[in-house]
Design goal:
Diaminopimelate Epimerase, Chain A, domain 1, 2 domains, alpha+beta
Length: about 280
């Protein structure tokens, strides 16, 4: 069996995008892992699958699988790539579309030829919804690790995140501490671990250790979580430019119950077929 695919990336956060509208796609965990493998497969951080809508409140159904084969509910860079894929494949020519994920409905708008904005539900700081092992919501949490007690913010933007302040982003222990916190019992469903250096009220630098993937070149949901955690404490303005390894993203949030907005590029690398 041959499967058609498109390789895409959002500032280096790379994806295999699959059309489940015109193909019958039933991939098991082993197959997903093999496709994601950079030595034995195509290689990617996440696999994205676009399928027909399941109800009238959205245009398409959007599934996201991390490189370890586990399905997750959010991927900001992936959503922008999905919008470009839908336009390039001719599935829709609407300037704004809605896609349903495992746990929410997202709105995508084409702002310009290579600038796509994602509108997502407000972040949640409720420990039960993140989820995390806290009995009540706090401004920050202290987590005991082999590297000592780590202070972080915790929230969900459709997937669980921890946010850590650092003073030197380039020398932050992203791999070591990321591994320790990603699988910590404090996060029963694991978590994405974001390291944030604040440059000014409207500029941040972010590095993210993604659950089930490792450090990626960019993480859209991680940028949203990082901005929201700081915005809640009035440390940044309503619109923030976030610097990543290969470019910038813009995150907007007015706070409280308002939606989050993430804007940035999406790039198509190549189309191909792979034998399963």
């Amino acid at each position: 069996m041959k499967l058609k695919f498109t390789k895409m990336h959002g500032l280096g956060n790379d994806f295999i995008v699959l059309d489940a509208i015109h193909q019958d796609i039933k991939l098991n965990t082993s197959q997903l892992r093999k496709l994601s493998d950079r030595k034995r497969g195509i290689g990617c951080d996440q696999i994205l699958i676009v399928a027909p809508a399941q109800s009238a409140d959205h245009d398409f159904y959007y599934r996201i699988f991390n490189a370890n084969g586990k399905e997750v509910g959010q991927c900001g860079n992936g959503a922008r790539c999905l919008m470009r894929f839908i336009h390039e494949q001719g599935f829709s020519h609407k300037n704004t579309i809605k896609v349903r994920t495992q746990n929410s409905v997202l709105e995508l708008t084409q702002l310009s030829s290579n600038n796509i904005e994602l509108k997502m539900p407000p972040p949640s700081f409720d420990p039960r919804k993140i989820p995390c092992q806290a009995t009540e919501q706090r401004e920050s949490y202290h987590i005991d690790t082999e590297y000592g007690s780590i202070q972080c913010y915790a929230l969900s933007v459709g997937n669980p995140h921890a946010v850590l302040h650092v003073t030197d982003i380039h020398n932050a222990p992203v791999t070591e501490l990321g591994k320790a916190l990603e699988k910590h019992t404090f996060f029963p469903e694991k978590a994405n671990i974001n390291f944030v250096e604040k440059i000014s009220r409207n500029q941040l630098i972010v590095r993210t250790f993604e659950r089930g993937v490792g450090e990626t070149l960019a993480c859209g949901s991680g940028c949203c979580a990082s901005m929201a955690a700081l915005r809640l404490r009035d440390e940044v303005d309503e619109s923030v430019n976030i610097k990543l390894a290969h470019g910038n993203l813009t995150v907007r949030w007015q706070g409280k119950e308002n939606p989050l907005y993430l804007a940035g590029p999406a790039t198509t690398v190549f189309n191909g077929e792979v034998a399963l």
